[in-house]
């Protein structure tokens, strides 16, 4: 999953905020940036999966309602 430019900037801004509030060496800083990027990517994927599931559910409900409606008339 590739993050958008805005998402990358958001991760970098959060990393800067964390760096200012703590004393990280270069190794830990790099590790934190990688983990934050990985988290942002996973969050984006989960959001897309959630949206896909909602669409499938909506289609299923509409299909069931249409099927139920045919027998009533």
Please describe what this structure looks like.
The chain has 73 residues and is mostly helical. The protein has one domain. Helix content is 85%, strand content 0%. It is built from two helices and no strands. It has helices spanning 5-21, 26-70. The N and C termini lie far apart (49 Å). The mean pLDDT is 87.
Task: Walk me through the topology.
Layout: H1 5-21, H2 26-70
Q: Shape, please?
A: rod-shaped
User: Helices and strands: which structural class?
Assistant: mainly alpha
Number of structural units classed as domains: 1
- Please estimate the helix content: over 70%
Give a quick summary of the entry.
By secondary structure, this protein is mainly α. The protein is built from 2 helices and no strands.
Name a few traits of the molecule.
73 residues, mainly alpha, rod-shaped
């Amino acid at each position: 999953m590739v993050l958008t430019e805005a998402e990358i900037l958001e991760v970098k801004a959060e990393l800067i905020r964390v760096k200012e509030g703590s004393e990280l060496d270069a190794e830990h800083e790099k590790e934190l940036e990688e983990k934050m990027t990985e988290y942002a990517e996973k969050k984006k994927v989960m959001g897309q999966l959630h949206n896909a599931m909602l669409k499938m559910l909506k289609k299923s409900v509409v299909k069931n309602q249409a099927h139920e409606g045919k027998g009533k008339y």
